[in-house]
Every structure is written in structure tokens, then in C-alpha cells.
Amino acid sequence: MIEANSLYGPLDPAPDAGWDEAGPRMGFFTDTSVCIGCKACEVACKEWNGVPDSGFDLLGMSYDNTGALTANSWRHVAFIEQPRPAGL
Fold this sequence. Notes:
Blueprint: E1 5-6, E2 9-10, H1 40-49
Antiparallel strand pairs: 1-2
């Protein structure tokens, strides 16, 4: 059986990554115009795709608190809290 490829590469890259029998993957779109930086989308993605916790502790400095980047920890949405005067 010849595996179909898309213009940019194989449709299923799991075998090249060492997965003999990879389960189905899930993806979703996020409306970043309403993003508050809570990272719930990243948590859901990791849960749906069986990606383990990276083990990093929360820094507590902002919602963008993934103190390091690894293959399992991402910063897909840039978010930094900006203080604003009361009432805005």
C-alpha cells in the first residue's frame, strides 16, 4: 500500500516519529481575539492527544507561565498582562 502524501509531507507523520500504532489525533481552532491566556486550549490539546505533563512548576508571574520550552510545552499564543487604569 502506498501512503498518500500531501504537498508538505506525509499525511500521518507518526510512523516517522517512532509510533508503530498511533491513535487518532485531535486538533482544533482557537479564536485568539478572545484569548485571555489561560492555557486551557493547551491543556485540552495535551489531554486529547495523550501528551504527558512537562513537569514544570507554574511561575505565578502571569498566565504565560511556562518557564521553559520543550517538545511538550509550547507558547502558541503570546500573552502578557498589561496593566490598565481602572474603568477601561
